[in-house]
Amino acid sequence: MDTVIGIDIGTQSTKAMVIDRHGRILAQHSHGYRVDTARPLWAEQWPNVWWDAVLICIRACLATPGIDRRGVKGLCVSSLYGGSGIPVDADIRPVHPCLIWMDRRAEAQVQWVKEHLDLSRLEAVTGNGVDSYYGFTKMMWLKAERPEVWSRTRYLLPPNSYINYHLSGEIAIDHSSAGNIGGIYDLAARDWSAEMIDALDLDRDKLPTRLVESGATVGGLLPALADSLDLCDGIPVVAGGVDAAMATLAAGATRPGNHVAMIGTSMCWGVINQRLDAGQGLISMPHVLNGDRDLYTFGGALTAGASVSWFVDTFCGEDKAAAGDGSSVFERLESLARELPPGADGLLFLPYLMGERSPVWDAHASAGFIGLSLYHRRHHLYRAVLEGVTFALRHNMEAGVRQGVTLDPRLIVVGGATQSDLWMQIISDVTRMPVYTYREDVEAALGAGLLAGQAIGLFDLDQPLQHGTLIERAKPSDEAARRYEELFALYCQLYPTLKPVMHRLNTISSAVTD
After folding, report:
1. Rounded CA separation 341/337 (Å)
2. What is residue 204's DSSP assignment?
3. Strand residues in 193-311 grouped as ranges (E)
4. pTM listed for this prediction
5. What is the three-class DSSP state of 77?
6. Does an H or E element contain 309, and which?
7. Does CATH number 2.40.400.10 belong to domain 304-407+416-432+477-513?
8. Domain with CATH 3.30.420.40 in the chain
9. pLDDT tens digit sequence for 85-127
10. CATH code of domain 3-251+442-470
């Protein structure tokens, strides 16, 4: 039986899975690791951690009873947004850790860009704005702050490109990863922008010349590696792409208007579209499917499920410890919070626990409960947290609509948040859309497997995908939706109103720390 392997390199773990021609998962394995955070706002990882995890996961999958190693016909790698990319020398050996998506050290470079570049021109060319999230500002930081590293760097490779090199011996960057760097990629031309590279004083020769579609074959599996894994040598290694777009593909997003919310530790809402507009504060890149035509436009909250975990750890820590895995704590909170009206009896929560990405783009934004009184109890705050993250979701969705995108009338949600029936209902009421989830695991590794399957003719992704079971989880309540309209309007006023206070508090805190 012909199969393919999909691999996803995540921020905290790597997962691999073997899937058949029906998209069924026959084997899967994950391996965890940590992010290095040597200083506040820093987040980096050495790529050998990823490569070791990839091999561990592939071997574990192939060791699963019933898996025919010789039946594996292709591989594809999805990966976290690698920010700066991995600086490698001429022998493709890393000379510095990768500054990943959550690293925010390049704030000085952001300020320089704002002062020296025509931002409207940057947005027009790249389809993206400027923030320390983007890889081009992290590249600028490396050049300015680590000149010895910069001088030794031959290429800056996204994580999946680096892994693909180890699998195939070939250097290439897929268009989704290149576009997500922002700043230096011409989104309309689907190529590097010489104009912006020069304006930012970056080096064109550190960017590989070979740009490929996410579904293209980069090369064949190296014979020595194939022998080590007991796979057929030369099987296609497919380029892959950014994990958010891959997970959206896995959830069935293949046509303009399809949109998916992924709510785990962070939240990412993405829509397939064909319009270029950076003015609404969203991020755009070529999609991993039909990337020559379609864009993947997304926005996200840095702390979604992380806000829920923070609340439970902080306010329910003893109960969680007594329960072991914390399940009874969540069950009790859910039961009590379900009985509350929309708005948790007068509470709003801003979920900016680590600053915020789109559409506000503010590393110094901070979180807060507004409306808190002696009357409120833990289940009030819990519901307010769920509602606050959902308001952040709608904030991004409305930015997409302002961009001119016509959204499908249903919202697909994937990720850990789908375990909460209450949260699914809140999302439906706030967005005024029916909410659907998958019975099966739908994640980036599956999207990578689907691209590998298309590359070898196992799937036709231009046809409606039938690899999962969609379940309607919630329908909007007219009464609740009307109430949430009022609350969302207030939510949107909070950040601009509180921004000066947030920034002043950050300044005071930084002065004390220094």
Report:
1. 9
2. G
3. 211-212, 217-220, 236-242, 259-263, 267-273, 283-286, 295-301
4. 0.92
5. strand
6. helix 305-315
7. no
8. 3-251+442-470, 304-407+416-432+477-513
9. 999 999 999 999 999 998 989 999 999 999 999 999 999 999 9
10. 3.30.420.40
